Amino acid sequence: MNTVLVQEVIRYNRLLEAMVENLVLVKKALKGQVVMSEELELIANSLFDNQVPKLWDEKGFLSMKPLASWTQDLNDRIDFLKKWIDGGTPQCFWISGFFFPQAFLTGTLQNYARKHVIAIDKLTFEFKYLDNLQPEDVK
């Protein structure tokens, strides 16, 4: 699971670094301190229109949300990872909060296979939908 966590953090850090770089440049361009390139103008227009800039979308997680909701979702995802780092492996995982959920699922199978000495290719997942179950209800 630590490998999954490290990979997720690397992906989110890459996105955050791009966002900071772009925002600093857009701010400077709006002040006239640097030339407003076409790329910066597209970012500024996206921000004005409450859309996720294409450069962030390409580096980011899959989402169809407008910028405001996307930003809140990003903050929630980062909080999830921070709690995992600070508090240890969570009892319950937010699977849609992962950048690359397939890695998490594979890591889960690998951990189970190692613990129970079973070939990983003999394992599968079974999913059950439970109404109104909250994370704190998971034991």
Features:
139 residues, mainly alpha, Substrate Binding Domain Of Dnak, Chain:A, Domain 2, 5 helices, 60% helix, elongated
How does this structure look, described?
Helices cover 60% and strands 0% of the residues. The protein has five helices and no strands. It is mostly helical and 139 residues long. Helix 1 packs across helix 2 and helix 1 (2-31) packs across helix 4. The mean pLDDT is 92. The protein has helices spanning 2-31, 38-48, 54-59, 67-87, 101-116. It has one domain: Substrate Binding Domain Of Dnak, Chain:A, Domain 2 (Up-down Bundle), CATH 1.20.1270.
Major sheet: none
Radius of gyration: 19 Å
Q: Percent of residues in beta strands?
A: under 5%
Q: Could you spell the SSE succession in H and E letters?
A: HHHHH
Give the structural class.
mainly alpha
Total individual domains = 1
Number of strands: 0
What's the CATH C level?
Mainly Alpha
The number of helical segments is 5
* Average predicted confidence as pLDDT: 92
Shape: elongated
CATH topology: Substrate Binding Domain Of Dnak, Chain:A, Domain 2
